[in-house]
Each structure stands twice: as structure tokens, then as C-alpha cells.
Amino acid sequence: MSAASDALFWVMFCNILKASRCYYLSREAFRLPTVIIGSVSYSGIFTTMREVKVKGASGFCSLDSGEESQILQSESASDSHRQASLNVQFTPEIEKKYVHHVYDAIAPHFSSTRFAKWPKVANFLSSLPSGSLVLDAGCGNGKYLGFNPDCFFIGCDISAPLIKICADRGYEVLVADAVDLPYRTGFGDAAISIAVLHHLSTEGRRKKAIEELIRVVRKGGLVLITVWAVEQEDKSLVAKWTPLTEKYGEEWIGPGSPHVRSPSSRTLQSIPETEESSLGECKKESDQSATQSLQEKTSQSESYSGTSCDVKDANDQQEYFVPWHLPYHRAEVSGASACALANGLAKKDDKKGAVVYNRYYHVFIEGELERLVAGMKDAVIVDRFFDKSNWCIVLKKTL
């Protein structure tokens, strides 16, 4: 292959990375094969590519029939596993609207409030051996990245605006989904998931996210997970949350999502994945705000007996909308707030001078994290504790 062909390949590769919004470019981190052309190494773009080594200018070499057969058998065996993962990897609408789009819209303001390190997380990171590679899944604004100067950190988050904040600070980061981490199996020495799992709306997705954290660390590697607890130390905060109850008929927001009440037979309309730049470009809802109506309905006391999941008292409630107040002077940084207001997915609070967003949370009861891990054969729980209204566990990979 000529030098010109090498250069063209590299340019195409960089363009693909930019289009996919990846900020971290080190090939060793990814669960992808490697192609070596001449003296230059390139990360594979697709997981279906096979590792091929090319010497000199001889072009791509082919596999012999035995190797090809072995690879095909391996790929066939994993087809069923990939198919089973599709359901949990499909992002329900409730997460897109009340997690992804919210954090994209509030990223700069959210980041400005996230700087204090939780003592137990800090202790965990400080205890890791020098030279450890730590993977932070759901790193947010990167407040834990680089915390231990003797370790190496790689972060990922579903929110591109938050990842840009991390990248601008010089951290090694990329946009990725917690239920499908792009890192190679056994790559890290430790992994952390701080206040992430409670944003996943089904048990299957929460369990898959834990499996991914275990997968990406080596044998003997540690995983720290923290989630919001039902047992909040500040009870006054809970009073400000909007519970999602089982009272007003079934309205699924995407396959496998929890039941969410909607006052009409319509499903909540999706926000476009790309934020629009102005209010005029947003499609305005003609119906009453679904979020506002939901809050009004859930404050009533009628009972619904059509499901075994009906809430009997406040202590049984685990699904909430938790408000985030974005000050007016920060709300117009982009068109995200204008779009959210037009689509009924945020509202104005003139008294507080803020645009109010609702974030979806599944708060955990005592023992719930342990039960999610119970059936996993490749990890054991080595520590568990309650810290600052969070349930926390530390896992050790055994296989």
C-alpha cells in the first residue's frame, strides 16, 4: 500500500471518529480489533472487523480455512447473546427525554455544581495500587477523573455536552452508553459507576450495566457502584419529587420501561435527538403539557388496582421525577431549553427565575443492588455500605 493510500486511510478514519463524537482516540481502550498498515496502527471501526496484520506493501492478508471456520463458529455462537442484549440496549423514551436530553440541556450548570468528592469514593480511588487504570462509566463533568495522580483514568458518559466539558479539561473521555461500554474485556484494573444506575428505567438495563462494569475489568479488578437510596437522609427533598404511580392506566414509554401515567391516550412525543437552535424551529405541543398534567394527576389520591406494582405507601415508591432548576441566565446558552419548554418537557418558574427540568430516577431499596449481582458468577461483593443517602457496593471480578 502506498504512502498516499496510508494518508487517505488515516484521514477517513479521523473523519469517522469525529462524526461519532469520540473524544478519546487511544486504540487500546476500545473493544475493537487493530489493523497495522506499514508502521502505522489504526483502531478498528466496527466490532465485526477481524484483526489483520499487514507487512510492507503486500495488502490485506487472508485467513486460512481453519481459522475462518473457527471465527465463523464463534460469531454464530455469540449471535443469540447479541440478540438477547438488544432489548436492554434499546434506550426507552423515558430515559431519552428525562435523562439524556435533560443533562444535555443543563450540562454547564450541572457541571458548576459538581466539584465535591464523596469521601467513600475518594477512599476507594486512593486505595488503588499505583499505575491502576480506572474506567469511570457515567463520568459526568469528570470530577473523579485524575483524582488519584498515581492512576490512569478514562471516562465515558451518554451526554456529549458533559463529555466536551471533560475533554476541554484535558481528560481522556468519549461518549458511550453505560449498558454497552466500548472497552475491551478485562482492560481496566478498576471501574466506578457513581450515581448512574438509578437513571436506567428497567431492571434488565440496570443489571446489564453492572455486567458491563464487571466485564471491562481484569480478573481481581474492583468495581464501585453507588445509587440513590429510597432512605433519603433529608426527607424534605423527597417532598419536592414527583412520584410516578400506577394509577391512571397503562402507558408504556418504550419497551421495558416502567409504567408512567399520562392523562390522555397519546404517548409522550419524542424530542429530536439533535437540539434545535431556536424556539421557532421546535414543534410545539398542542395538548396540555404532559409533564405538568402528570404532576397534577399524581398528587391525587385515587387508587388503581390493575397491577401488582401498585404503590401502597410512600416507602414503597421507587420511581420519581426529580426537578432541576436551570436559572434563566443559563437557559438560553443553546436552544435546548426553548425546545423543552415548547414541547412541554420543561416549565418556567418565574418566582425562582428558572426553567425546571424533570430527571427520571429509580431510587434503590436496601438490598436491591445485591440482588442484581446475586446471579452473576464472575464477581463477588467485597463491601457494601450506606453513604450520603446512597446505597453502595464494591465488587471483585473472580473469572
Automatic annotation (TrEMBL):
User: Which Pfam families does the UniProt entry name for this protein?
Assistant: Methyltransf_11
Feature: compositional bias, Polar residues: 262-272, 288-308
In Gene Ontology terms, what is one molecular function of this protein?
S-adenosylmethionine-dependent methyltransferase activity
InterPro entries given in the database record? AlkB_tRNA_MeTrf/Diox, Methyltransf_11, SAM-dependent_MTases_sf
**Residue span, Methyltransferase type domain:** 135-225
| Region of interest called Disordered, as start-end residue ranges on this chain | 252-310
Q: Which GO terms describe its biological process?
A: tRNA methylation; tRNA wobble uridine modification
Task: Please give the start and end residues of each transmembrane region.
Answer: none
List the record's Gene Ontology CC terms alphabetically. cytoplasm; nucleus
Question: What does the UniProt keyword field contain?
Answer: Methyltransferase, Transferase
Q: Which PANTHER family match?
A: ALKYLATED DNA REPAIR PROTEIN ALKB HOMOLOG 8
List the protein's name. Answer: Methyltransferase type 11 domain-containing protein
